[in-house]
Design a protein that fits this description.
Structural class: mainly alpha
InterPro entries: TPR-4, TPR-like_helical_dom_sf, TPR_rpt
Number of helices: 44
Protein name: Tetratricopeptide (TPR) repeat protein
Keywords: Membrane, TPR repeat, Transmembrane, Transmembrane helix
Pfam family, one: TPR_16
GO molecular function, one term: identical protein binding
Amino acid sequence: MPKSSPKKNQPAASAAPAPRRLPEWAFMLALLLLAFAAYYPSLNGGFVWDDDSWTANIEPMLRDGAGLWKMWRDPTALQQYYPLSGTTFWLDFQCWGWWTLPYHVENLLLHLAAALLFWRVLVQFQVPGAWLAAAVFAVHPVMVESVAWITERKNVLSLVFFLAALLSYGRFVSFWHSEDRAAGGWRAYTAAMVFFILALLAKVTAFAFPAVLLVLCWWRRGSIRWRADVLPLLPFFAVAIAFGLGIAWLETHTVGASGPDWDWSWPQRFLLAGRALWFYACKVFLPLGLSFIYPQWTPDAGSVFHWLMLVSAVGVFVVLWLARARLGRGPLAAACLFAGTLFPVLGFMNVYGMRFSVVADHWVYVSTLPLLALMAAGLVAVMQRLQHQGLRQGLYGLLLLLLALQSWRQAGQYRSMETLWRSTLEKNPGCWMAWNNLGNLILQQGKIDESISFFSKALELRPHYAEAHNNLGEALLRKGLFADYQKELDRVIAEFQSAVDLEPWNAAGYYNLGSALLQAGKFDESISRFEKALSLKEAYDDAHNNLGVALVQKNRVDDAISHYRRALQLRPSNVEAMVNLGAALLGRGQVDEAVALYEQALKLQPDHSGAHNNLGMALLQKGRAPEAMQHLQRSLELRPTNAEAHCNLAKCLSEEGKFEAAIQHYESALKVRPGYGDALYGLGVALSRTGHVKEAVQQYQLAVQSEPARADARINLGNLLLQLGDVTAAVDHLERAVELAPGELLSHNSLGNAYLQARKISEAVQQFELALKSSPDNWVVLNNLAWILATSQQASVRDGVRAVSLARQSSKAAGEENPFVLRTLAAAYAEAGQFDEALQSAASARRMAQVLGNTSLAEAIQAAMQLYQAKTPFRDVQ
C-alpha cells in the first residue's frame, strides 16, 4: 500500500501524543488522579435504579457456577444477552457481595482504560491533541452516567474491547504503518475479531465496529476498496448483524420495548433522529443541563421546528461533503462516526429506555469519541497561535478542571437512589417515572402519606402507568387503619386491578392484587392471582410465600408448606417465608423445626417483630416460659403496635394467672386492631376469670360479631349467659357452636347443659351422648349424662343401670374423691335400687364437700340421703 501523503485531509504527522515535557507515565497518573477526583462523590454510593437487574434480581445466578453457565447459555437469563458483563457482576458478588465501592471503582478503572486506549488509537492515527481528547473524555460530564451508574458496566466494558479491537485491526490493515509492511498479519486480525466479539458480549452497541472501520478506511485513503477494505470486514459484518438482530428481538420480545410508547411512524422516527443528533452534539460541546432522565419528546410531523432539526442535521453532512476538499475528510468522517454509532438509539429501533426519554447520556458514550477527537484537534490548531506554551497548557488545564468540576457535581447525584430521583425531578418535574420511584423509596422509609402523594403525581402525569397503580395500592395497603377500612381496601384492590389490566403480562401486578385480596379475606380470589403470578414467573419467592399464607387460610397447610419451602429454595434469606413456614410447622406440632426457623430468621433480621412473637409462642409450647416472655416483650419493643404480640403476651400472662396484666395487653391489642377476634376472646376469658361476667359477655359478643364462625367464643358466651339466666340466648349461641364444630366435646357438653336448664331433657341427653362419642373418658360428660339418667323426672329417660356404669367411669376418671361425681354415683345407685351403696357413696360425697368447704353441696347431699334411707330415689327439679 502506498504511503499516505500529509495533505489537508490527513492528520498532521508531526503531532505529538502528549505535551512535550510531560512523560506518558506522568500523563496517565495525572489523568487517573483527576478522574478519581471527578468521580469521587459517586464511589461510596449505593445501588441505584436498575442496578438490581444485574445484582439483587439475579442473586440465584450469582451464587454458583451453574448460574454463571446459565448467563452464557440462556439468552433470556439476564436483562439483555450481555453474558460478559454478567460475568463481571458474578465475580464481584463472589468477591465483594453487595459492597458497592468495588463495583464503582471497577467502572471507573474500565472507563480510564477506555480513555487510555482512545489516546493510543489517536496517537497511532497521528491525530493532533490526542492526549487532550482522551483527557476530556475521561472527565467529561456526559460520561458520568456510564461510569457512576453501576448497571452501565456494560457500556465501559464494551468500549474497552471495542478500542482494543480497533488497535488490533489497525495493525492488520497497517493503518499506522507503511503500506508495504503488515505489522500484525492474521494474528492481529484474529485478535481484532476476538476483541470485537467480547465487546458485543459486553454490550451490543459495539455492533457498529465494521462500519466504523470502513469510515476510517475512507478517511485515511479517500476511497473504500473491495479487496483490501470490504472483504476482510465481511465476517465482522456477519457477526455484527447476527448479534444486532438477536438483541433487537430480545429488546422487543423479552425486555418489553413494544407497545404504544414506541408507536411512531417512520416520519416521526426521522424527526426524532434529527433532533437527537443536535441534542447529543450540544451536550458534548456544552455539557450543561444534564439529567438522568430528560423530558420526553413527542415527535410532531406538523411542527416546523422538528423538520428544521432534521433538515439542518442532514444539511451538516451535505456541507461537510461539499467542503471536504477545503476542510479535509476528517470533519465528515467524525460526523459519520458520530451519527453511525448513535443509529440504534436515534429512534429507528425500539429501545426500552425510550419509554421514559428518547435521549440519555449513556447512549452517547461511544459516539462522543469522534466529536472529542475533532474538537481536540481543532482546539490544538487554534491554540498553536498562542506563542506562550505555559499559557496554552494553563488553558488546557482550566478546561479539564471545569469539566472535572461539572462531573464532580454530576456524580454527586449517584450517592443514593433518593438523591438521584430528587435531582432528576429538579431538572425534569414532568418525569412520571421519577415521581413513582421516589415514592417507592419514601414508602420504604415509612412515610406513607408522602409516598401516596408522589404516586398520585405520577398517575396525574401518566394515568395509565401500571407500576404507579401498583405502588399506590401498596401504599394504601400499608397505611393500616383507615377511617373506612373496607372502602379504602376496595380502592387498593381497584388500583392493583388497574395495573393488571394495563400490564397483564406482569407477574408483580398479580402478586400485588393477590396480596390485597388476601388482606380483604378473599382467599380463593387471592390464591388464583398468586397462581397466575407464578405461571408468569415461577421463580417468584414472594408470590410463593403469600400463596402459602392464603392456602393456610383455606386449611391447605401441606400445600402452603410446599410453597414456603420453594420460596426459601429460591431465596434462602427470605425472612418472611421462614417465619410463615415456622408458623405452619408449629401448627403441625413440629415445634423444634419451627424454633430453628425462627432463630435463623432472627439471625438474618434481629429486629423482626413477627419472628420474636412467633418464637415466643413456640418456646411457650416447649415449656420455656421465661424465654417466651422475653421474645414477646422484645416483639412489642420493636413494634408497640403489634396486636398479635400483645395478644400472645396476654395469653402467657393468663396462663400464669396474671389476669389483670393480661387484660391490659388484650386492650392494647384491640386499640391497635379493633375487632381482633383472638384479643376479644382472650379478654373475655380474662374478665370472666376475674369475676367480671357481664363485661366478659360483652367481649364474647364482640368476638362473635367480628368472627361469626368462631365456635369457642360462642361456647364461652353461651356458658356465661347460662350463669346470668338468659337460657334462650345461651341455647341459640350453643346450637350455632355445634353447627360450627360438630363432634366437638365442649360444644355438645355446653349445649347439653343449656338444654337441661331449658327443660329439654331428651335433647340434653342427645348432646351428652354426642359429647361422649367425642371423648369417652371425659369425667364431666360422663357425670352429666349419668345424673340425667339417674335423676330425670321423665321415666322414659331414666336408666339406673347405665347411670351406675357411667358414674363409676366418671369417678374413676376424676380420681374417686370428687364430691360431685360421688353424689351422682349415689343417685345412680338409688335409681338402680341399691340404696345401701347409695348411702355409702352419698356419705363419702358429703364428707368431701365438707372438707372442701362447700356447705351448700353438703346440705343437698344430706337431704338426698334422707330419701335413700327411705328407699326413695332422688329426682332433680328439671
